[in-house]
Structures are given as structure tokens and as C-alpha cells.
Batch of 3 targets.
Target 1
Amino acid sequence: MKKIGIRLGNWLTAEQSQRLWQAPNGERLKEKRDRALLALLLACGVRCHEAVELNFGHIQRRKEHWAIVDLKGKAGHIRTIPMPSWVKHVLDQWVEAANLNSGRLFRRVHKTGKAWGERLTEKAIWHLVREYAAKAGIDKLAPHDLRRTCARLCHAAGGELEQIQFLLGTFRFRQRNDTSAANSGFKCRQRPNWNRATG
């Protein structure tokens, strides 16, 4: 069958995704942070500016599952994002090793091996995505490609379009549909087999 149109952007396979987030071996503090950040970008589809603004208050337990709650995204839209348990585990490893308990989740790591400052920058995320993509043998990868990957793998695992749009914060819904849209986001968290395969 003839394909129509052109491919816009870049995305990874489940195997490439696993190679990418496991490229930081997690021995040093910086690698623990980078592993947690890559896992979050891939599995939760957050944007760079959302990742650097994440704080401890955003991570909550909802309906027996972990979630990023009330995250303010593009154009001020607020959403709740389901977080797979393997991502929460990797995030906890970073937080415990860095001895953090309040404020923003992702910080700089000093060359002495200690977390410092109040936040990581979006530019730092660009650099670390490129760094670990090169280590994983992946060319021309940008942070936004991890959002595309999240959407594609969720769809391949059976996620419905409405669920994926809500997960990524691109879902335009009327007020009367708020509840069903939120519930759809949590269904999508359960479905993707790639999360279990990746974790």
C-alpha cells in the first residue's frame, strides 16, 4: 500500500526507549538523576518546561496508582498524568540518593557529587538527551521526540486517541467531559505493555 505524506518528527521503538533510559548506569548521583528524568520524559510524556517545574507536591498516590497531579502545562492547561510504578521507583532512587525532600524534583549535580541549586534548566535536559542518545546509538534525538515516543508506544499498546491526547495535554474537552477525560488518562496508564517491558 502506498504511504501518503511525510514523517514529522522522530520517535523511538520500545527497545530504543529502554536503551536510552538505561544508558545512565545509575552509579553516580548525576546518572541517577538523568535516568529518572529520561524515564519520566519517555513514560509520562512531559515537556521540558514541565519537567523542570516538577516538585514534590505534584507526585501523589491516586486510586492505588502514582500520578503527577495538577501539572500546569502549555497555555496554562492543568492535567494529571499517570506515572508507572517503575518510573516512580527510578525517581525515588534519585531523590533518596540526592537527599531531597522538598522543592523541585530535578536539580543540578555539582562535580563533587552533590545536588545543588533550586532547579535544572531546560537547556540541561537538551544536553543530557543528546548525550545519552549518542551513548545508546540513536541519532538526532531531541527531548520533544520522547513525547512523540510516549504517544506512539501508548497507541501501539492499545491506548485510545482521546486517552493519549489527555496524557500529553493536547486534549481539548468541554467542561462536562472533565471527569471522563481524567478517567481516560488513568486507563492509558494501565494499558501500555511497553512500560512493563521497558521497566
Target 2
Amino acid sequence: MIDFALEVERDEGKSSRDSIFEACQLRLRPILMTTMAAMLGALPLALGTGTGSELRRPLVSRLLAG
């Protein structure tokens, strides 16, 4: 997002505030959607109770907690 804001600032001659605002409008949604997909994809691993679930649980807790 920062690279995009710097590129807009350089190429289009916008102020820092305007370029950051535009970068947030264009790039924040894909970043949040990717994060949510990873978290929701790990949810079945976190809730699983099958064989080996005790080995996967620490990995999933780190993934969900950040």
C-alpha cells in the first residue's frame, strides 16, 4: 500500500495525504479479503477434534492470533 501511495504521489503529483487516501481506497479491500480468507480457512483446523488435532491447534492459534 505504501509503494502504491508513493507511486501515485510521484506520478500524479498529488499531496501525501491524497495519495495515501487513494491507496487506502484501492488496496485496503484486497488486503483485508486475503487476511479474512486465511483466517476463515484456518477455522476448521481450530475447531477440529479428529485425529492429530492436538498437533495442529498450536499452529492455528498462532495463525489466528497474528
Target 3
Amino acid sequence: MKSSFAGLGIGLIGAIVLAYLLIVVNFQSWLDPFIIITALPGALAGICWTLLLTHTTLNVPSLTGAIMCMGVGHSEQYLDGLLRARTAG
């Protein structure tokens, strides 16, 4: 169980770093991707709150779902930033 959590934790950190670097390339800025990445703890707080309300334990399937939820939140912000940049010029 501990090795599963360690592997998922390393995967989560690696995914965040890789996503940040990909956004840096697309936006050609270091600040805009940082602002997008800082919204991820808000999604994580919502996940923890939901687990608390539903009395669900933190296990491998729930952590996998959390990673997927953070990916969806990240892609929404990323697409919104691209649309704003496209309409601005």
C-alpha cells in the first residue's frame, strides 16, 4: 500500500512539473503557467472535503480520481487562457 501511494505521489509531482513546462512553452511566459498551477491546491481541497463528507478513505482509486480531477481542472484553465490570448491578439 505504501509503495502504491509513493508511486502515485511521484507520478502526481511529475505530472505537475511536466504540465507546467508544457504550458511555459505554449504561453512563452513563466508567470502565466505559475498562476494556472497555483489553482490546483483549490481542487485538491475540494477533493479532500468531498472525501471527508462522504466518509471515504484515501485509497488508490480515490487518489487516482484526484489526479484525474486535477488534470481536468488544469486543462480547463489552460484552454481558457489560450482562448483569452487568442481573442486579445
